[in-house]
Amino acid sequence: MDILAGFSYLFANPIALGFVFLASIIGVIVGAIPGLTAAAAIAMLVPVTYYLDPLSALAFLYVIGKAGRFGGSISAILFNTPGTAASAATVLDGYALTSAGKPGKALKTATVASVIGDYTGDILLIFAAVSISSVTESFGPPTYFTIYMMALIVISSVIGDSVLKGLMSTAGGILVAMIGIDPISSEPRLNFGIFEFSAGIDLIPLLIGMFVISEVAVQLRNTRAGVKIIQVAQSDDPDANRLTLVEFRRCIPVILRSSSIGAIIGVLPGLGSAVACFTAYGEEKRRSQTPELWGTGIVEGVAAPEAANNAVSGPSMIPMLALGVPGSTIAAILLGVFLIHGIPVGPQIFDTAHDLIYGLFAAGLVGIAVYGLIGYFFAPVIGRFLAALPPRLIYPYIFLTSVISAYSARTNVFDIFIMCGAGALGYLMRRHGFSPAAFIIAFVLADGAEESFRQSLLLSDNGALVFFERPSAMLFFGVALFVSGMRIWKTTFAGRRSARQTWSDEPANVEKK
Amino acid sequence: MDRNIGWFTTAVFLAFGGAFFLASLTIPGGTSTTLGPAVVPRAVSLMMVILAAIVLVADFRTRDKGPIKQDITPRDLLFRAGPLIALIAVYGQFMLWFGYLIATLLSGYIAFRLFGNSRKASALHSILAGTLFYFCFVYLLGIYDPPGSLIDMTLLF
Predict the structure, then answer these.
(1) Nearest CB to A431 within list B9, B88, B116
(2) Which residues of A touch B88 (CB under 8 A)?
(3) Confidence of residue B50 (pLDDT cuts 50, 70, 90)
(4) Percentage of chain A modeled with pLDDT above 90
(5) pTM above 0.90, yes or no
(6) What are φ and ψ of residue A181, in 5° steps?
(7) What is the DSSP string of A368-408?
(8) What is the C-alpha to C-alpha distance for residues B59 and B72, in angstroms, rounded to an integer?
(9) How far is B61 from chain A (nearest CA, A)?
(10) Domain ranges of chain B
(11) Whose CA is closest to B10, among B44, B53, B50?
(12) B18 CB near a chain A CB, below 8 Å?
């Protein structure tokens, strides 16, 4: 019944409610801009929330994240370009439907699947976060250190092209987080003789540089290369642009299974929507009696990835709320916003900020309904609006917004130079298979990980053995080893299989020549 | 100008790790009973140097064996991404010299031109963006407009 109290807390704050509506609109539009992720939009809009009450600020950013994930499907379906990585699998059948003159059907399927998926994820969040937090309240520094280690190991091994590059991205984030003052001894460190480094590096300019500036640089490359959007004629069939009841019934089991996959993936730190959408798409294609039709334009092929990627949204907040460990980039930004408003995050948050947290959950549920209505009735209009706006005008405005957002985080011009460096590094990382997301999440986790590591050793008589004495700590180490081991095994196995394939293909190629 | 220099990112990481490792050597170490502030940065930067060296060697050994998904060419760095990234640094410097409004007008014009807009459209949009952003962020949200060291526009408003 706490969620009802959350609704009353939200409805008692009309400003917060207004920001939920605004966030739904902004999220859908920004998500639909190719290349611009929900995390990037949130990073750019964080400065706006400094002047809002905590509920309005958090609800605004949280709902942008949700609506942005859905918005990515609009450009995936209409322009064959996923607005976000989370919609990459939607392109396969979504654009095929558009090519067949049925963009309305694809957009309505995506909307229905996204809404059901998002509600599934939020219901899991509301019930699981409180239950998990009641267990994690008793955790001490050694267990916390193993949780941080689990998050860092999982993130570095599953994000990006290779485990080594993932580890390097994670190490980069940790090192940048160490710049400034040591949290335990207050000793200055790694400031390279630059005075401005003494206060450490702020998350916002780093985040905007890594995600927004690097994307604008990639888009500058594409704009110069002349990447064009293809316009497709619509079908005359009245059923072509609506989701029929028969199709909806066919999609329901697909949506429910994919939502469950997305919700489970969402709980694990670092995996995120992109992994969820491909896992759900692959699983549903495998289960299908007509797998040969997948990719040719069927509604199930749109429903599966969209339900899964939106189901990630709620559960990805569980590690942050129950443990104080952000498992995604959006959670990392929200953690920063909680701290800006003086609200410490961790399992105790359900006691110290009970109304705010349930108000935020309620805002999420309202936000889903709002973006669902926008998507169902106005997605084609948003698509046409974005198609009419040339990228050569959109991206310079995004560039200018990024600069003022980076500056306003601490009203410090030096942060613009930080964003510049992060943008350059982010661009190089994206072009060469490194992971900016792993870099940012590691940056956020590093301080807590180091603090819990050193506190554990200070409190311990047994030295490093303190990490192996608690069953909960061993469990988290076990999860980390299992996930990274699976990834290493999979990449090695896939690599060997591909090498064998190449060897077996080579004589045939030679013969053909 | 169009050859692939994908190894460049790994080399940047190697230099990055090396710089942090050298800087970590100047941080005071811990005592016999406590870990000092140098332990984690030193260990992580050393790990980064080793990993970057491994990836760099692997990149060179496998460079001709197959297609590379992500490519970086000198042309990208010098004529596409490079100027945009450099513009951010110039923008920051303009803010120190002229304050937010003039810096946005000047940098906005260059940004619109970089994306291939005409001189007229670039001038129009930079004025529109500068005025709009100044009104929203400085006037409405009250974000501090830094007084320029060469031209101080804050005296006018």
Answers:
(1) B9
(2) 213, 403, 416-417, 419-420, 423
(3) very high
(4) 22
(5) no
(6) -120, 135
(7) HHHHHHHHHHHHHHHHHHHHHS-HHHHHHHHHHHHHHHHHH
(8) 13
(9) 16
(10) 1-71, 72-157
(11) B53
(12) no
